[in-house]
Design brief:
The protein has 360 residues and is an alpha/beta fold. It has two domains: 282 residues, Rossmann fold; 34 residues. It has twelve helices and six strands. This is Sulfotransferase family protein.
């Protein structure tokens, strides 16, 4: 039996930093995980098999990770099938250990299936929800994926609403990203207390490693966003910050329930606009690709013609080169003579017509 800590929350919200830091604390991670890239230089720390399973499930129900619509509802056979699949992945990828960490933001949309999958193996699920300012998270998504402000904020809102709503009956903690980055040792110590887990290595004993790994510069400044959905996202953010301090705050949960209900029809409209926007960009990209291919075909034809000429007249490049060198040499020999004659004409003209060759 293991304690399985699922790290969830919106993409670009500190889930990778939180997951990566638990390695220093001795938590068990999957051997096969997505590494670093230009968008995440420290590493993603996402189990490849977990991400693949989530993507496949979303594809099965005509969804993607960046879908802001309400998650699909599964009937009993579907639910049982996915739970069995997830239980098998957890067992094969992580085995047994005192504390296992599984990070994938997509689990925010599928917490029930993963939690029950863990319980099928006799494991105890725990959930840490990374919380970052919606404008900052959305700005990062916009830079990385080219989404509109409305779409990025709507996705943030959906992820955070589902992550909170679906973990109310679970042992959970909400971790504000700014607090974690500014003081990882204290934050991780408090996280263990909230989740009733024990780190194999204490945060205090790994302070140097944690402070080297966690950098303030990881959180970039947000863009200036102007869209009505930002107000809704801010309201969600404020309520979640209250729950981060007071996990049983009924008023905050009531606020989130109201927003979640009202957001459902709005998210459908935003999704349609996002799809149309992506379609428009895809068409523009196709035109750009077509132009590039046309240019390359033309260049290839010119190269092929040059190759034919080279085979037909193999000495022509050498002859052209010799002609160029000969003309260059002749020009150097003639230059002094030409210069002398030019000066002679200038002197002669200046006596008869001083203005004829004047440069003034």
């Amino acid at each position: 039996m293991s304690n399985i800590l699922f790290i969830i929350g919106m993409h670009r919200s500190g889930t990778s930093a939180l997951s990566g830091s638990t390695r220093f604390l001795g938590a068990i991670h999957a051997e096969a995980s997505h590494g670093s890239n230009d968008n995440n230089i420290k590493g993603h720390f996402e189990p490849i098999e977990v991400v693949a399973a989530n993507d496949q499930l979303l594809e099965n129900v005509n969804r993607t990770w960046n879908d802001c619509r309400p998650p699909p509802v599964f009937d009993a056979p579907q639910k049982q099938g996915y739970e069995t699949t997830f239980a098998k992945i957890l067992d094969q990828e992580f085995g047994s250990g005192a504390l296992v960490v599984v990070k994938d933001p997509r689990i925010s949309l599928l917490t029930g299936l993963w939690g029950d999958g863990a319980r099928r193996n006799g494991d105890t699920p725990r959930f840490a929800i990374a919380l970052r300012d919606p404008a900052a998270s959305a700005s990062s998504i916009m830079r990385r994926d080219g989404l509109s402000a409305e779409a990025a904020l709507a996705i943030w809102t959906r992820y955070m609403l589902e992550a909170e709503h679906n973990t109310r009956t679970e042992t959970r903690a909400i971790i504000p990203a700014e607090r974690f980055v500014s003081d990882p040792v204290t934050t991780l110590t408090e996280l263990a207390e909230q989740l009733e887990i024990t780190w194999p290595n204490s945060p205090q004993s790994t302070r140097a490693e944690l402070e080297t790994f966690i950098e303030r510069g990881l959180l970039h400044a947000p863009l200036e966003l102007e869209t009505p959905i930002l107000k809704t996202a801010r309201e969600v953010y404020d309520a979640l910050n209250i729950l981060a301090e007071d996990s049983d705050n009924a008023q905050a949960m009531s606020t989130l329930d109201r927003i979640r209900k009202n957001f459902a029809p709005l998210s459908e409209q935003i999704h349609e606009r996002m799809v149309l926007d992506q379609l428009h960009k895809a068409i523009l990209n196709k035109w750009q690709v077509d132009d590039l291919l046309k240019t390359r075909r033309h260049t290839r034809q010119e190269l092929e013609m040059a190759l034919v000429r080279a085979h037909k007249y193999p000495w022509k490049p050498l002859v052209d080169s010799l002609k160029f060198r000969a003309l260059t040499r002749l020009a150097k020999l003639v230059a002094p003579i030409s210069q002398g004659r030019a000066e002679h004409f200038l002197r002669s003209a200046s006596k008869r017509d001083p203005q004829r060759f004047s440069t003034k």
